[in-house]
Amino acid sequence: MGVLWVGPQSPGGLQALSRVISAPHPRTGCEAYFFREQGSPTMTSLKELVGSGEKRDAVIEDAQKVLDAEVADKGGISGMAIKTAYKMVKGIQPGFIRKVVNALLDDFLDQLDPLYQEALSEGKAPGQHLKDNKSRVAEALLSVTDARAKASDKGSVKKMYEKLRPSAAKHVEDAAPRLAAMLERHTS
What we know:
The protein has helices at about 45-50, 55-75, 75-90, 95-120, 125-130, 135-150, 155-165, 170-175, 175-185, and strands at about 1-5, 20-25, 30-35.
């Protein structure tokens, strides 16, 4: 990544107005340039990119598909427990999973944003960076669900979460490739 500051000591006596950050575009690999005023954030946050409007709706729909696929892929005894718990949660009320994803999305985006910004600042594709840092992704996302589960007033959801929580980090890490692909689809 190249960083260029334009300041008062530069040729022509230009004012310190902006910096140019160049990084390869995550999907194409072509060089992309970002111009920011001095002192402003280096990149747009995940929440700004996908946290509202049609983008948010698309992310929520896609997240549900990722969740469905991850649950469907689980096998063995623990997989059966996860599938049973997921079916139970889905049965709480129609659209419950969508409501949960919508309620958690802002916190998830806030928790993943440091990894996203880190990838961009290092000139890496954000999706690959998430895959490479899957344990950090798991910690970030589970910090949100832990707090929400603790505050939940739905006893059955809380009880099931507590039962499944010990193995949750591994399952979230396993989901990193799908989560990364989803991030790439919606931020590129």
